[in-house]
Amino acid sequence: MTRNTCIILLYCLFTSCSKSFIQVFDTASTNTQLKGDYFIYETDTVKITYAFWASKGVMSIGVFNKLDKPLYIDWKNSSFIYNDSKFNYWIEETKTNTDSYYGGYFYKGPLIRPGLTINEGLQSSTSISLKPERITFIPPKSNYYRSQFYLLPIGYYKINLDSKKTTVPRNDNPKKKTNIYSEEFSLENTPLKFRNYLAFTFTENSPQFFFIDNNFYLNAVREMDYRHYLGKDNGNSNYEKPFKKMTSFYITISSDQEVGYRKTLRR
After folding, report:
1. Mind listing the pLDDT tens digit for each residue in 177-196?
2. In what order do the strands lie in the sheet with 58-65?
3. What is the pTM of this model?
4. Nearest-angstrom CA–CA distance, 233 and 8
């Protein structure tokens, strides 16, 4: 048995023992367009691409400068707005202190670029003491990427006991049945609304801004057996199908986080 095979087997054993459920969250937007697998906002000046697929969801953005001249983002005058609570993109402190300031909302892992997300279980975090950039320069016809905030920084979302139940063949073993519990939300009753409010200028340190305010909300959640989520692809576990979308995100729930209502759902 090769060393790589041993590592894979140990990882699978650990995964099967520690992860019983997974919740997949779907989002919608009020003022961006769904193009392919991404939310996109586009003007004659800029194109902003959004992707959220990560554990607990991460606000991952790609900003493309469409102009033949530089474009600037002023992070001091930009904000991430979470259920009407404002979080600053920039404060005059080091990243380490910023992490403490934002608590669980601040994402400190590797960059998650739209289209180049990091597979579950392979994420790592860093703590670097350096002063964050207040104004970002984007050259003509070029992209800038940023990922900074979690969308749902909790252990799990408590699905109602009277939520919709669907019984389906299990993706990893179609001979077995499994239950999927789901809830759907409208803009009026959603438990999560979030906005990305960005301040742009055409010259560095300019007091004149134009603002882009993109709005999103949680519109569905599905809870399922972790084995059903993984499924199979030619006999191998497959993280890509059928639930992965850049407009969605997930939370894995280990067995030590189970509570009474979850045991009821398993029956």
Report:
1. 999 999 999 999 999 999 99
2. 33-35, 38-42, 46-51, 58-65, 142-150
3. 0.83
4. 16
